[in-house]
Specification:
Among the domains are: 44 residues, no CATH class; 36 residues. The longest helix is centred in the middle third of the chain and has 32 residues. 37% of the residues lie in helices and 7% in strands. The protein starts with a helix and ends in a 34-residue tail after the last helix. A 3-stranded antiparallel β-sheet has the order 2-1-3, with helices on one face.
Length: 135
């Protein structure tokens, strides 16, 4: 619904006032009539002062939107921890890299009586049926 209106407004701005007729041909607007075309009124009934006021209001809205978007980005940056594209949290290192490189960390002792899990080798394996070329 917005695209035909936008197209009509663009054509209205491009054409001199009252000099050209705009036709709606399906979902498009053009200056040459087509089969089943209907004429569209494209004259801007607003005065020059009204058009100037509308342009100024639109520009003020654009400026305010840019300012609000910049504020929102700053708030989001400050409020949420940094994440990878898949939503995985990036953990920041707790200690400097030089301390961990010096070998100060100790391996964790395992619990007594705990065995390492063995892979299940008793599971049935899938074997593909022979193809016509392997017969």
């Amino acid at each position: 619904m917005k695209a035909p209106l936008a197209a009509a407004l663009i054509l209205a701005c491009m054409a001199p006032a009252g000099a050209a007729t705009v036709y709606r041909c399906g979902q498009t607007y053009q200056q040459v009539p087509c089969a089943g075309a209907s004429a569209v009124e494209v004259a801007d009934p607003r005065s020059a002062d009204q058009r100037k006021g509308a342009r100024e209001a639109a520009e003020a809205d654009r400026r305010q939107a840019k300012e609000l978007a910049a504020e929102r980005r700053e708030r989001e940056k400050a409020a949420t921890p940094q994440r990878e594209p898949m939503g995985i949290l990036i953990k920041q290192p707790d200690e400097p890299a030089s301390a961990s490189a010096a070998g100060t960390s100790k391996p964790k002792p395992g619990k007594k009586g705990q065995r390492k899990a063995k892979p299940d080798t008793d599971l049935p394996r899938y074997v593909a049926p022979p193809t016509a070329s392997s017969k």
